[in-house]
Design goal:
The complex is a heterodimer of chains A (about 110) and B (about 110). By secondary structure, chain A is mainly beta. By secondary structure, chain B is an all-beta fold. The chains are: A mainly beta (about 110), B mainly beta (about 110).
Chain lengths: ~110, ~110
Amino acid sequence: GAGVSQSPRYKVAKRGQDVALRCDPISGHVSLFWYQQALGQGPEFLTYFQNEAQLDKSGLPSDRFFAERPEGSVSTLKIQRTQQEDSAVYLCASSTRDRGLELFFGEGSRLTVL
Amino acid sequence: RKEVEQDPGPFNVPEGATVAFNCTYSNSASQSFFWYRQDCRKEPKLLMSVYSSGNEDGRFTAQLNRASQYISLLIRDSKLSDSATYLCVVKSHNTNAGKSTFGDGTTLTVKP
């Protein structure tokens, strides 16, 4: 399909493991966002890219979280030394100025840290 | 205090009812406003943008009061398929740059 694709859909990690979550945005979408959604809460902003430039990483909760988008397309969110509080759904969204301000979300990666 | 506040509900209404959701935001520099819909265990999807003059899309009406920093969503003639969580969203830019800030959502259940 032509939507935002995220993988893996589900990830179970033991506390202390590193995880990498991938986002493939809609082709041609310049802006890419990562959000974290805990159960019963709204999505919380993590970081934002415009092309390959990370313009805002103010929402990353600690230096264990790192995101990159080296070629301005696919993005990876990496979490080092996972903790139980990292358990959440990680949502990726992309947008383009041609479609106004609408965010197109992927289905998310559900991370469970045991 | 969260930047975007919503009544979490849940709102349980019968089919055909009219229901209204409210949202307040704290950043007076906010430029753009939206309602997103999120079905259970699915991703959020744009329901409608909210314009200063108010706007309507079928059974849905959105209002913005910049002076009070208040946004509302009215759903008329509720359908079973309207059952979802409704997320209020504000953005400090009026371009596609910059982050969008989400409320925690209001859950609606429409019953037969």
